[in-house]
Amino acid sequence: MAETIKLVDVTKCDGCRACMVSCKNWNDLPSEMEDFHGSYQSHEKITANTWNVLTFNEQERKDGGLDWLFRHSSCLHCTEAACEKACPENAISHTEFGSVVVDYDTCVGCGYCVQACSFDAINLATYIDKNGKEFRKAQKCTQCTDRLEEGLQPACATACHTGAIVYGDKDELLSSAEDRLAQIKERYPNANIYNPQGISGTNTVYILADKPTTYGLPENPKVALSQIVWKDYAQPIGKMMLGATTMAVIGSFIATNLNKKNHSSEGDQSHE
Fold it and tell me: What is the third-level CATH fold of 4-222?
């Protein structure tokens, strides 16, 4: 299977929020009422039940004019995902499409993934079981993996009428991103392609009109060394040691019972 990505060109976005609506509809996410933030932005940030938010930033140009800098903000589906590294239950993983998803049956709601994410793209949702007890599960954008499995596009890409969000072959879209960058450089001197290599790139790539921090994105995010050591070394070794210990206990149990059986057999023979 060819590698695929979602390419978001913020310079084509007109702030319609169709991506937000389509995401809510497809994923059957509940509405969330928020207080007025003093801007056109409907939600302050991504939440457990609002997986993508269109951010609004007003920027003054050198000629005195104003530009609206919009961004379709959602999970970037990092190649080296900090949330995946931080999860102690292996409830977060990559799919064949490069999307990062949560296994709700395995998730225990510890919140380590929330703390680890550099993009504040994953949050804990609260539920109540049949006995009235509250429990939590991590939730975020899945890049519509269920749609991808059926050969469909992510809902946000399908709904975007300006072509600001497209999904397709990785090499083709990265090439088109370079062409687009050359076209907009005159108007946006600081324009750049945001695909941070500190995390080996992302499955959602941006064409930004200004530096990443203008859009609330970290310049060069990285997975913490402690998370890498924990996930890639300490946890596997710990499981191996636990497995060895378990086998030793089982072996000891079997050996003890065999010895008892042998002694019992020898005792019976001595009485014959």
Answer: Alpha-Beta Plaits (3.30.70)
Residue 272 assigned to a binding site: no
Reported as a single tens digit per residue, the pLDDT across 64-93 is 788 889 999 999 999 999 999 999 999 999
Question: 113 labelled as ligand-binding?
Answer: yes
109 known member of a binding site: no
- Residue where the block lists tokens 């059986």: 261
Name every residue whose Cβ is closer than 8 Å to that of residue 67 and which is 6 or more positions away in sequence: 58, 59, 60, 61, 209
Residue 149, pLDDT above cutoff 90 = yes
Question: Hey, what amino acid is at 10?
Answer: V
* Ligand-binding site membership of 232 (annotated): no
Closest listed residue to residue 207, CA positions, set 3, 6, 2? 6
DSSP 232: I
- Domain spans of the chain, in order of start: 4-222, 224-272
Secondary structure of 18-68 in the HEC alphabet?
HHHHHHHHHHCCCCCCCCCCCCCCCCCCCECCECCEEEEEEEECCCCCEEE
Task: Read off the pTM.
Answer: 0.82
